[in-house]
Amino acid sequence: MSIVVNIYYSGTGGNARKFAEEMESSGTVAEIRKEEGNLRYEYFIPMADPETVLLIDCWKDQEAIDRHHASPMMEKIAELRVKYDLHMRVERYVSDEDGIPEADSRFIKE
Questions:
Q1: Which of 1, 16, 47, 81 is least surrounded, with the fewest CB atoms within 10 Å of its CB?
Q2: Rounded-to-10 torsion of CA 70, 29, 15, 86
Q3: Tens of pLDDT along 17-32?
Q4: If you classify domain 3-88 with CATH, what class do you get?
Q5: Strand, coil or helix: what is 2?
Q6: For 35, phi and psi rounded to 5 degrees?
Q7: What is this structure's pTM?
């Protein structure tokens, strides 16, 4: 089982993008990607909303997320959220251990 957390960071004046850029340039993202149990940590900008940045954050299990939340990274992330005056919307998904159903796989080109 893996857990995917989609975090939508929204702000004004390009602040969400500045936040993601500082997360990358400061090395914080690289450090998070090295954490045990991290499977994915990537930022995206929705085409319909340039004032929002989507973080796709994927972890091996809840224990990995809990370790991440207890790490020094969270203090840095919280400081940057305040610095850029960001608001958040969060979605959480648990992986389907059975994989992609056969009926859906025919629509996927690899």
A1: 47
A2: -20
A3: 999 999 999 999 999 9
A4: alpha beta
A5: coil
A6: -65, 140
A7: 0.89
